[in-house]
Design a protein that fits this description.
9 strands; alpha+beta; 5-stranded antiparallel beta sheet; 25% strand; globular
Amino acid sequence: MQKLVRADILGPARFAPLRDELRRLNIERKRKRRVSVGPQVTLVFENRDTMKFQIEEMCRAEELHDDAKIQHEIDTYNQVLPDEGQLAATLFIEVQSDAALRLTLERLVGLQNHVWLETGTERIRAVFDADQFTTDKLAAVQYLKFPFSPTAIKSMATDLRLVVDHPNYQHEARLNELTRQELAEDLVS
């Protein structure tokens, strides 16, 4: 997937009058790319458009106008974007309270070894961003990538499942046709 460059980002002044419409479009885009796996884990598959909006929002919130600071945001979020033959996602662990969150995160230590995409006969293990966790802690938001083989890319058109097989959390979600189409586009862009 082509990485973002400074020319892709409007910056706070040019983004402000367009924000409401771009936000509406981003919400609609993410709705197609959001997959819940059980009651507490959700993945949003990211692409250039979702990351571009995220960068615009960060620049607006932090009032970044300096090109070097905007470029730093671009560089940071480009790391989330997938490389060729990959899908990228943000994984959210969703609970209602801080106390429940702490308990849930403790229960899910080791999650990085238990998130998969399955298609046809292939099982594609998620590669978590190693800088985000340690062996005894888990953050509620994680960035991960799924490296696809050419065979897996072909078979995902008809079947793609997201599986979490952690000993304390075992759920599966079958991705619908609209989501599979969105993700197939990511793999060829």
